[in-house]
Every structure is written in C-alpha cells, then in structure tokens.
Amino acid sequence: MRKKGIKIILSLVLFIIAIIIQFKNEYVNNIIFVISYIIVGFEILKKAVRNIFRGKVFDENFLMSVATLGAFVIGELPEAVAVMLFYQIGELFQSYAVDKSRKSIASLMDIRPDYANLYKNDKIEKISPDEVKIGDIIIVKPGEKVPLDGYIIEGRTTLDTKALTGESLPKEIKEGEEVVSGCINLDRVIKINVTKEYGESTVSKILDLVENASSKKSKSENFITKFAKYYTPIVVVIALILAIFPPLIIKGATFSDWVYRALSFLVVSCPCALVISIPLSFFGGIGGASKMGVLVKGSNYLEALANTEITVFDKTGTLTKGVFELQKINAIDISEEKLLKIVAYAENFSNHPISKSIKKAYNKPIEESQIKDYQEISGLGISVKIDEKNVLVGNEKLMQKEQIDFEKSIDIGTILYVAIQGKYVGYILISDKIKDDSKYTIEQLKKNNIKQTIMLTGDRKDVGENVAKQIGIDKVYTELLPDGKVQKIEELLKNKSEKGKLAFIGDGINDAPVLALADIGIAMGGLGADSAIEAADIVIMTDEPSKIINAIKLSKKTMRIVKQNIVFAIFIKIAVLILTAFGLSTMWEAVFADVGVSIIAIINALRVLRVKK
Ligand code: ADP
Ligand code: MG
Prior knowledge:
β16 and β17 (423-431) form a beta hairpin. Among the domains are: 2-96 and 218-284 and 554-609, no CATH class; 114-147 and 149-195, Calcium-transporting ATPase, cytoplasmic transduction domain A (Distorted Sandwich), CATH 2.70.150; 322-434, 3-Layer(aba) Sandwich (Calcium-transporting ATPase, cytoplasmic domain N). Strands 10-22-21-20-11-18-19 form a seven-stranded mixed β-sheet, with helices on both faces. Strands 2-1-3-9-4-7 form a six-stranded antiparallel β-sheet, with no helix packed on it. A six-stranded antiparallel β-sheet has the order 12-17-16-15-14-13.
C-alpha cells in the first residue's frame, strides 16, 4: 500500500508540474506526462497483458489500458495520465478498506488463542502451542482441535477432518497413526507425540482463514461476477462500432472525433464501482462484525442473516452461563467426599461446562494416571475407568441406556447420576444461571421481526422449561440427544418459508451437527468447543447471545448499502455512457464520473465498518 501511495504521489506531482508550468517545448511536457503515466500505469498494463495470456481478456485492467493508450494515440496525454491516476487512487482506497477489515478480523483471532495440553511427569499443563517442541507429548480431549502435527502413542478416536479435506467425514484413527493439526477430536482422549513445530503446522492455516473469511461469496457478489462477464465484451464491441462506423457513414464526421468518443465510452464503461464496492461492502460488514466481537466466516452468511426468520438456541452455555454451582450431594453407601472425588476424576478430560464447574468445586489435585478409557458420550455424560473400576457419570438417559438400577431424583436442577461397576451410588445436583442478556436477546429478536424463538436442550424437562419461561422463549424441546436436535432442526427447516433463514446458536460438542445443518450456524467462541466453532458459520467471541441482534442489524445495514451502491453505480454509469456516445461528455467528465462513483461507493461501503464497540 505504501509503495502504491508513493507511486501515486510521484506521478501526481509530475502531472501537476506539467499542467501548471506548460513548458514552451511541447516535447518536455509530453515526456513528463509519459513518465508520469508509466509510474502509475505500468502495473496495470503488465496485468492486462498477463491476463490476456491467461485467457482473462476482458477485465478492468484491459479496459483501462486500451482506453488510456488510445488517448495517447489521439494526442490526449493529460487525460491518459488522469485516468490512470484516478483509477489507482480508487484502488488505493479499496486496499485501505480491505486492510482495515482484515486487521479487525485478525485481532479477533487473538481473543481465542490456540493451546496445547502438554503432558509431562503425569501432569497436564495448558500452554501456548508454539512452546511445544518436537518429541513432546500432548493430550487432545474430545471436542478439541489437534493443535500440532504428530502421531498417536496412546488411545484411539474418531477425527473430523473437515479443516483439511473440506468434508466432515469422521475418520477412525488408532495408535501409531498420524494426526494432522486442524482436525477435531470427536470422542476420546488421545496422546500425541509431536512431530512438527507450531509455526510449520498451524500459523499458515489461521492466516488462511483470515484471508478466506470473505471467500464464500454472497449472491450479490456472484451476480456482479456474472454481470461483468457479459457486460465487458458487449461494451468493447459497442466501442469498436462507435469508432469505425459513424465516420464512414456520417458526412463530416472525423475518425479522431469518434475514436475519442469510443475511447471515453470505454473508460466510462468500466464497471469498477460495482466490481469494487459490492465485495467491499461485504468485507466491510465482516470487518464491522469483528469489531463487535463477531467472526463471520463468509459474506453469504452475512447476507443470509438479514433474512433470519427462526432462531433456535441451545441452552447450556448458550442462554445459560454454563457455570454450575454445586447444590447437593446425595451419596448412597459411599461418603459424599468420595462421590465428589469420583465425579471430578470422571470429568477431568471433559471440556463441557459441567466438568469445569465440578473440578472447581472439588478443588484438589487429580492424579491423571488413575484415569483410563475416557469416553464422552455427547448429550448423555461420561464413561471412564478410574482406578480400574468402570464409572458412569451422566443423566437419566445414560443410566437407562446402561441399564443401571437407579432412583430418579425430584430435585430441580441438573443432576449427575453416578454408577461404579454397574452399581448406582448416588447423584450430585448442580444448577446453572441464566446469562444476563438472554431475556433481552429474546425480546429484541421479537422486536426485529423474528417469527419464532425456540430452545433445544439435552437437559431435563423441568430445567429446560423453567429457563424458557424465565426468558420468554416461544417453544422448548428438552432431553434431546444430538440426533434429536438434528431431527428437530430438519423439521423446522422443512416448515419455514422459502426465503426465511433458520439460525442455530449453540456451543457444545453435541451442537456441531446442527450448527452445520442450519442455514446459519452460530457458535459461542469463548466457552464453545472447538468442534462447534469449526462447524459454525458465525462465531460470537464474547459468548453474549445479544450480539446476534447487533449482527442481524449490521447485516441489514450491509444489504442496504449494497443495494444503494448497485442502483447508484448502474444509474450513473448508464447516464454517462449515453452522454459519451452522443459526444455530450468529454473524457474528463467520463473519468470523474467513473472514479467519482467508485469513491462514493467505497466511502458508502466503509460506513458498515464503522461500528460502536
Ligand atoms: P445443552 O443441550 O443444554 O447444551 P448438553 O447437550 O451439553 O446440554 O448436555 C445435555 C445433558 O447431558 C446435560 O444436561 C447432562 O445431563 C449430560 N452431560 C453432557 N455432558 C456431560 C458431562 N461432561 N458430564 C456429565 N453430564 C453430562
Ligand atoms: Mg450447550
């Protein structure tokens, strides 16, 4: 950008000198114009030639080159330089805007840094992955992203390889096999011997995500690409006709006159304002969203958000804080202390909000060597071996599934039933708090024309219904397994209107399939599982559900700006094209029209980038 800026200033200075001083010797003047042109236009000429060889003939570089070289031919040197200068100024504006968006997206990435669980002397330490050395051992828990490349030395699991292959096919993997960073560990704990340093394995992938954040094109952008494909050749043909036929047919018409008109016609015809400002508006929108702490993974999602009709929420971690407080320990034939210890050990490898809360309540060191065969059963709980004994910790459904003879509790709250070696030993009652902005979010969604608000949860009926009532959600479905959530979303997708979109907002491992299935998947970036974040289209870094409202408003604003820009650019373009074809406008006016429209459109697009933090 700086290089481009310097070029523009240099060229501009020469250009002004030549215009103001008007050297007596015309050659000196012309040479200054030519130098000024080459400084600012060489790059465009080079690109035009290169693209011709690549088969992309009719792009904006080609238009600019033909028009300016043509202006040279008919002796309009200052115009030629001015066209290039203004065009490059427009480009500079654009890269400035893109850069700004990119920076705010990149700064979002810092909010959720990658980490690695380093395993050393029977202890796990959470450290930054760039501190891990080759040969170190790391542990990857269910729902976590593999931070570094390596091979498995203990355990087997299923991996989601979407980050690498684009397909979210689960892949079975066992001891001795290689794992590549970026994959998501789906169900068990694995130990990995690291074979590559962080710099080599992941940084490039993060940058990739930033670069490609807007590579998923919106419908409006695809329209522009198609439009330009047909539009450009048509314009070139009209220009040729304008240059050749009138002088032959009309009496007194001169070639230089009509060639000039044809060339100005070409310059004006360049659809730069459209081509530049539409993607830029979306990019600006994505940048603006980043500033609010919302990562949008593609402009198509930003576009879809404006048409949100149904919002479906997960409960734990999404509408509630996921910070459970210990309410009661009900132990049978075992001390309360021992029961809490067993549960804390069982929860050790889990990243579920329940696990974090239990570990905090236990608050004693955990001897990890006693924990084996850890498996997280999404939506149900945990199965694990502690001190060579089979332990189950989870909800009613888990107990029923494993045919444990247990007693249902009537306490209100989330209940963790515990069984050791197939024998029921009591339960722990915990309860969660609703997030401060959950109620406000639902109210605002209704005010913003969202037709339905729904909650899906794996938790118990009474807990789910209680939360739903407190925050005013329309409908609630409880005790759902991950499959159940998928089924419900499929039903809702079938019954919604064609244009309306369904947004699902969740955080857990069990939400990943639904996040991928919904029109718009939104994940909580702070406490959410890596797998949920990976599957989502939009990530709320601050974990506040109310950010959805800001995002929807921003999306509507972006769409308004996109429409304004399309209408404005096409209208002015057609008007000036007609004026030029009839010789009512000079190349100067044509240039000002084109660059003017581009710059106004860009400034308009930049409005979405400006959001209050
Ligand atoms: P939600 O759908 O509301 O976010 P989850 O699907 O994450 O809730 O969990 C559903 C239920 O599964 C929990 O209420 C709990 O009973 C059980 N469960 C899930 N993970 C765990 C865990 N790590 N330990 C114990 N129970 C769990
Ligand atoms: Mg959840």
